[in-house]
């Protein structure tokens, strides 16, 4: 690994920008994610910033049990995040569809549609747990960035 | 020449997925169309497949911001069907939970409104204050979002020492009076951004049938806590703040004043809380055939549940929910017509929309 890629690796680990996407969530996880960005939990100390566009983000944070309406959007947004990228599924909904299991309008869980790196379970998870999940995803991101080509093929 | 600007469904300015199509003439919005349904999870159908204990956990997840209100309304309707009367202490605990939830919801809204005004400092201040409300909620229920406090015939957890929570309420009130309310009412940034935009006249408010703070900001003095008291609200003293102007600033003021009233109700409920049981125990629950409705004043307005049951059934035959945003949504169209394009995110946020409640 040359100096440049070592630097990039460290930057990715220390400053992951996130994009938040709601795939039919009840807002519980969404407000906990926002709460984790505000002064009490202060995600910015880890270099985390909420971005408005998936093209600017490294980590895709998805909440909600994946409604049929959102499947196409999830795939599009996942495609728009630049490589290397990591996906954090926040809450029990994207992991198992939670209490909404058996619903006919859901097309979950999330890992049927896109590869998920970190699951943060809980209904909803506490902001501390969300931060831990993002920190873990940042490490995965840095590792993935250090071997970009191999990794891209593995993902497909 | 008019053109259409689609906004959403997955847009950074929107907290939840929904789509707003705006027809614009230059900078001025001439019409708007709202598309919802991206959050549809089929909860009303799922409720028919769950028994009377599971259905409470399911309906709690209709909305993460007003989760307590949904279980409260459902439990009230189910109590009507079973004929169980919750004890007085349970009613007081329900009032405490409902008011704490109103506090955190209004502060959250204030934060999001501040963010949409471009007032990031205020957003952070509001959320720092909201954490203090969440501390009280967590101290009572052990959870931050889905409290699972309500059950048929009372509440699941007792408030063991109500007077100990008084100091927390006083601190909240102090911060509200000294920080949040003065900034929103006197700061030039907030005033210039809110005054005179998104006007909903009194006549339009009545013809759209808007509810909650949106109605009260347009001079419609309606509040279910006063008009049809539930839980222990008939024993509380409070005012219903009403503003005449009908613009975004009026809606901001109504919510700010409601925060003060919530603190007042909280103080009364905590000091006057009677001793005794907080639920009716684990006796057998027998439902009678029929339909019961229950109405509750949620932070955003009136929530109506209509629950049907067939005798000897464990599952409800039908649970129908009508949420406040469903009533307030059509008013957005009348608010944005004639507004500048840059003001529309703030205007549509001013009704405090919750589409996960509305879509279900």
Any overview of this molecule?
The complex is a heterodimer of chains A (156) and B (360). Chain A is of the alpha/beta class. Chain A has one domain: 3-Layer(aba) Sandwich (Rossmann fold), CATH 3.40.50.12280. Helix content of chain A is 44%, strand content 13%. Chain A contains 6 helices and 5 strands; from the N terminus they run αβαββαβαβαα. Chain A has helices at residues 3-14, 28-37, 68-80, 92-96, 127-146, 148-155, and strands at residues 17-22, 49-50, 59-63, 86-90, 118-120. In chain A, strands 2-1-3-4-5 form a 5-stranded parallel beta sheet. Chain B is α+β, with helices and mostly antiparallel strands and 360 residues long. Chain B is 48% helix and 13% strand. Chain B has helices spanning 43-47, 54-60, 67-82, 88-117, 120-141, 166-186, 188-194, 202-208, 212-216, 224-227, 248-272, 324-336, 344-349, 355-359, and strands at residues 2-7, 19-25, 28-35, 150-151, 154-155, 290-298, 301-309, 318-322. In chain B, helix 7 packs across helix 11. Chain B is globular. The mean pLDDT of chain B is 86. The chains are: A alpha/beta (156), B alpha+beta (360). Chain A binds chain B through residues 21-32, 34-35, 38-40, 51-53, 64-65, 67, 69-70, 73, 77, 98-100, 102-106, 123-124, 126, and chain B through 9-10, 12-13, 15-17, 37-43, 45-46, 49, 57-58, 61-65, 67, 108, 123-124, 127-128, 130-131, 134, 144-146, 354, 356.
Layout: helices, strands, pairs:
The complex is a heterodimer of chains A (156) and B (360).
Chain A: H1 3-14, E1 17-22, H2 28-37, E2 49-50, E3 59-63, H3 68-80, E4 86-90, H4 92-96, E5 118-120, H5 127-146, H6 148-155
Parallel strand pairs in A: 1-2, 1-3, 3-4, 4-5
Helix pairs in contact in A: 1-5, 2-5
Chain B: E1 2-7, E2 19-25, E3 28-35, H1 43-47, H2 54-60, H3 67-82, H4 88-117, H5 120-141, E4 150-151, E5 154-155, H6 166-186, H7 188-194, H8 202-208, H9 212-216, H10 224-227, H11 248-272, E6 290-298, E7 301-309, E8 318-322, H12 324-336, H13 344-349, H14 355-359
Antiparallel strand pairs in B: 1-2, 2-3, 4-5, 6-7, 7-8
Helix pairs in contact in B: 2-3, 4-5, 4-11, 5-6, 6-11, 7-11
């Amino acid at each position: 690994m040359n100096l440049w890629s070592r630097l990039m690796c460290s930057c990715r680990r220390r400053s992951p920008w996130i994009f938040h996407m709601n795939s039919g969530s009840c807002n519980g996880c969404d407000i906990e994610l926002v709460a984790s960005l505000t002064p009490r939990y202060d995600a910015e100390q880890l270099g985390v910033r909420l971005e408005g566009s998936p093209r600017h983000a490294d980590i895709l944070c998805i909440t909600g049990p994946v409604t049929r309406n959102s499947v196409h959007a999830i795939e599009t947004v996942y495609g728009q995040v630049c490589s290397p990228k990591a996906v954090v599924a926040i809450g029990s909904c994207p992991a198992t569809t939670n209490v909404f299991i058996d619903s006919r309008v859901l097309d979950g869980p999330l890992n049927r549609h896109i590869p998920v790196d970190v699951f943060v379970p809980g209904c909803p998870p506490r902001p501390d747990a969300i931060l831990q999940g993002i920190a873990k995803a940042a490490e995965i991101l840095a590792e993935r960035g250090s071997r970009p080509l191999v990794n891209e093929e593995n993902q497909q | 020449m008019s053109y259409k600007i689609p906004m959403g469904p997955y847009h950074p300015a929107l907290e939840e997925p929904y789509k707003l199509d705006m027809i614009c003439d230059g900078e001025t919005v001439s019409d708007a169309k709202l598309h919802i349904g991206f959050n549809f999870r089929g909860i009303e159908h799922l409720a028919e497949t769950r028994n009377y204990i599971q259905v409470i956990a399911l309906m709690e997840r209709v909305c993460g911001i007003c989760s307590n209100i949904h279980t409260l309304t459902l439990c009230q309707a189910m109590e009507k069907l079973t004929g169980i009367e919750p004890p007085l202490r349970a009613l007081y605990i329900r009032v405490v939970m409902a008011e704490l939830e109103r506090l955190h919801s209004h502060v959250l809204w204030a934060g999001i409104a501040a963010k949409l005004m471009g007032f990031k400092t205020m957003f952070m201040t509001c959320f720092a204050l909201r954490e203090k409300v969440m501390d009280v909620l967590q101290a009572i229920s052990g959870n931050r979002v889905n409290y699972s406090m309500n059950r048929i015939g009372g509440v699941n957890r007792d408030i063991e020492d109500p007077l100990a929570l008084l100091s927390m309420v006083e601190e909240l009130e102090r911060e509200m009076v000294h920080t949040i309310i003065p900034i929103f009412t006197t700061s030039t940034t907030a005033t210039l951004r809110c005054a005179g935009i998104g006007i909903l006249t009194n006549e339009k408010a009545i013809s759209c049938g808007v509810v909650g703070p949106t109605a009260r900001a347009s001079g419609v003095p309606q509040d279910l806590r006063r008009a049809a008291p539930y839980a222990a609200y008939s024993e509380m003293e409070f005012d219903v703040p009403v503003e005449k102007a009908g613009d975004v600033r009026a809606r901001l003021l109504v919510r700010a004043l409601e925060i003060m009233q919530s603190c007042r109700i909280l103080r009364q409920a905590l000091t006057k809380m009677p001793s005794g049981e907080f639920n009716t125990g684990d006796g057998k629950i027998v439902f009678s055939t029929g339909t019961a409705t229950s109405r509750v004043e949620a932070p955003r307005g009136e929530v109506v549940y209509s629950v049907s049951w067939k005798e000897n059934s464990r599952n409800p035959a039908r649970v129908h929910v009508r949420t406040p945003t469903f009533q307030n949504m059509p008013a957005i169209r009348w608010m944005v017509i004639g507004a500048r394009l840059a003001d529309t995110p703030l205007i549509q946020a001013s009704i405090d929309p919750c589409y996960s409640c509305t879509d279900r």
